[in-house]
Amino acid sequence: MDALANLMEGFSLALTPMNLLWVVVGAFLGTAVGVLPGLGSSMAVALLLPMTFALDPIGAFIMFAGVYFGGLFGDSTMAILMNTPGQASSIASTFEGHKMAKAGRAPQALATAAIGAFIGGIIASLLVVFFAPVLADLSANFGPQEFFALAVFAFLATSSVVSDSVIKGLVSLVFGLGIAVLGIDSISGAERFSFGVPELFDGVNIITVTVGILALGEVFHVASRIRRDPAAVATPSSGRPYLSKAEFREALPAWLRGTAIGVPFGVIPVGGAEVPTFLAYGAERSLDRRRRKPMFGKGAIRGLAAPEAAGNATTGTAMGALLALGLPVSATAAIMLAAFQQYGLQPGPLLFDRAPDLVWALLASFFLGLIVLLILNLPFARFWAKLLLIPKQYLYAGISVFCGLGVYATSASVFDLLMVLGIGVLGFLMRRYGVPLAPIMIGIVLGPLAETSMRSALLSSNGDYSVFVDSPITVTLYILLAVALSITAFSRIRARAKADV
Length: 501
What we know:
The chain is an all-alpha fold and 501 residues long. The protein is built from 20 helices and two strands. The longest helix is centred in the N-terminal third of the chain and has 35 residues, at 106-140. The radius of gyration is 22 Å and the shape is globular.
């Protein structure tokens, strides 16, 4: 009951007219920056950080909450409409969300994303308020071997379900892992696969790869087929900015499953919402294979609903981990940590005693920010969807320009511009030959985590490989992986048997 009383006190501070204004301003600005290709929610927080220095701490962090959640919705908006996610956590939303947009269901896709973000964020925020200590204990149980098992689970489970060909899925994964190991080895300091090019010593920026594979690859693909493939051009939107009862019933279980997957990852330092969004998408795709009429690959609403809920659930609990433990588990949380330090505050258990007004007002602003985003974005979904009505030659030319600007803004390197062009060609070739995009992105995002975790576990065990199966968490993950692969293999064998009859 103490938590509830403290939360009510936080609402009394957050609901003042000026603080409400900062929530709205933050949500609007976060969304505006988030829709720019190559920038995204973390860049939105970084760019808008200087604007808050003139505010009092409570007003500044309430505005940050709006920027944070607004940036996430902006990421999803461009991922759905243009197949151009602002950052890696929105990649999973492109697979079915963009197909919905191309089929004329862009407003419904945006509504699915907005409601999923609201459900995942609200549930996660409630859990943070009442169960932060339990989530903190969960985080303490993860060591290098658990992180490695988690990465292997994501690699194989997703690669086996996102493509009709397991071989193509694994080829795509290998491409991603190959890109992930470029540069200086973080443990030994040795140069790897950089061919003596100084610009590759730090590896390949995830923004460069994301923009190249997903955005420029899509631009090249559309340009190559726009005159001979009508499907390459989006169908005009139906304009209905809400979900029908049937669509809501279809999406609701996926929202709840995605939230359940995303909540624990907010306190597990795996780099953000990339892992849970991919796992949520993979789980829905696996369930879809068991239906009489599989919908994935055609714009399945559940394939968008689950990653969106998972991403925002992870975001909510990540902020709880930052406040309660001082643990930044994502790039955006790290920027927020810097903002706390700018005001002379150190997140952690003592923050609740030293600055309770700030903490509980910030937690209350999470709820307000999610409500404001829902109010702002549901009615405007049809207007965002009108981006698809821009003539394709102008639209995709504009996307290309913003891709270049986004990449250059993150690195100020001409070499990265040339690299994003080359990676864009790779993305085009993968589309051309039916190689799935999800595994390559999973390999790039989780490859460093898997490698570092594996080597750290072996170093701590003096090279004893049994360390990878000596904890209940790792054994459970490997058993779940075996079950998932077995179900997938059985489903494909049965589908082939039916096709042969």
